[in-house]
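Hi L.,

You mentioned the student needs an example of a multi-chain input paired with its predicted structure. This one should do, with 262 residues in total across all chains.
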Amino acid sequence: MGELLAKSDSSYYPSFLQIHNDVRYALDEAQDIDTHLRPLASHFESLETTDFIEAKHLFKPMFHIIGLVYDHCQHYATASRIVVLLQEICNLVMKQASEHLDPMELFKGEVDEALMKIDETFETLDEFNNEYQEIRNRMGDKWDFAPELVFAKWNEFMNRMQKIKELFSTANTFLKLEKVEIGGVKG
Amino acid sequence: MKLVHAVESVVIEWSHQIREVLKKDSAQQLLDGLDPLPSVEIEFWKSKRAHLESISEQVKSQDQKHLKSLSSSIS
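Structure written out for the whole complex:
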């Protein structure tokens, strides 16, 4: 077809060539990215299926592979691409954290138990943060995008978590006060 | 000349269809304000790869087939 268009000097020939090249480029890109992302699939799966408390051990290997993908996958090594992936990972971690906390149940049970659960959740969340910082430091100048691009929602989520924790801590303190009996001046 | 026109209109139609596939963006769900999970990203590239492989396969193989059927329908 290309030949025919070229010989007849068609005005569509350049766009025909263009689309050919675009397809070839896009195919290269998709193959490259698909191949490199595949090893991550199992990491995401285990993050989804592992109990959130146990999940803190999963972040290091996951970020390690992400670093490798960034270093070796030419088409994925741009801020706009990696930011998408990191945002989605944050979404996953937040989802798992909320499910672990089970907010509806949180208010029904004992306050100190709830507080324990909140602390556990924080442990995993903090671990995620630490591991992210580690990879970010390791990537150095290569990851020069603004953290807000990835963590806008995450930061809000952490603020809410902090508020929940404060609420339960306060409730806990009040409950302790309730048990205190004041014995008057004579003691 | 007729053949050229026919080919041109096929090329135009293809271009539109192919552009649709090319312009798909893995960030679309994020831009739409949804909360996609990382599996979405993996699935996206898997399916984009499959689509493009099939497009480039078709462009190659259909090239001659199409041309034959076009020229026979015109003459």
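You could point out the following to them. Chain B has a mean pLDDT of 85. DSSP finds three helices and no strands in chain B.

Best wishes,
N.
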